[in-house]
Amino acid sequence: MTATTPAARQGATGHIQRSATPDDQPSASLDRPQSIAAPLMEIRDLVVSIGEHQVVAIRELDIPAGRRVALIGESGAGKTVAALSLLDLQPRVARVTGSVRLEGLELIGMPDRQLNRIRGSEVGVVLQDPASALNPVMKVGRQIDEALRMHHRTSRRERRERVLELMEQVQLPDPERLRRRFPHQLSGGQRQRVMIAIAIACRPRLLIADEPSSALDVNVQAEILDLLVRLSDEQGMSLLLISHNLGVVRSMCDDVAVLYGGQLMERGPSRVVVDQPRHRYTQALIKANPDQLADSPVERTLTHPLWPIPGETPSVGQFPSGCHFRDRCTHALDPCADELPITRTVETRTFSCWNPAPAAEPEANVEETAG
What we know:
By secondary structure, the protein is of the alpha/beta class. Helices cover 32% and strands 21% of the residues.
């Protein structure tokens, strides 16, 4: 692929121009070397504030092209607000500062008219609850068609063919019949598949999926997650998955970023972070959810005791100074209360902790930056 400057990609209309189709992109793989995938989206010093309180403060996070990245943490960690703020979809009372660049194009502060060209076309979004996201009085086929009309000048016949193609792509049965139905006439899993069809209608480079399977039963959850992996691989599409399930993250995502109280605690390759956590919050999160990583019910019961995290996640504005996790951490030191932890980078993993869990092996070339 020939390199292009941000200005060339932006073009005269501000719409990012592709130099290759999705079919030309390499398939994502958990075993692919990190160096192959360049950043598609670069997040720097992202701060989301409500009034005087910071609800998200992410210093640095990259979403590489064609890779799957998970944003994980407890409820109230700031995952959804952080993800929505990337496209200026956060609550109106929230204020966003910092930098979010999509292939070099700055999104923070971009006019709505220009940003609307990117939403849906370059970045798709799948929300947690399809029942509230879909229009209840519009047939689902028309809702998919609407996503196409917003970004493409094609004939009605071409759009109808594309709608049926998308419904088949997300494995909806009998698309010709189903497209004429209203959302309430579909099952929860079918509604979520419609949401995914809308999100990928314009072949986006990045798909943001906010807990896409949490409201579904276990069997349907697995089907939806398998579908997202397949679409990511087939289209070379990056995926930002918002989740609280460590087992899902470890099995389907290349990289993981652990969030607590809006602070980025640890990030790196998912299997490295989940199998050998260094931040005390990541470690506590794994101990509190051992069943998500066990291979069988017997293993869950006999070899993975439950260690609940003390206390509860504070409300906005109630997090302690310094490390936000220190009041619930059993390994907290005096410096944890005074200032933000130093950030250590070891090869492809980064964590911010004054008293990290011991490394499995001796570490070399450790880089440290102030909190």
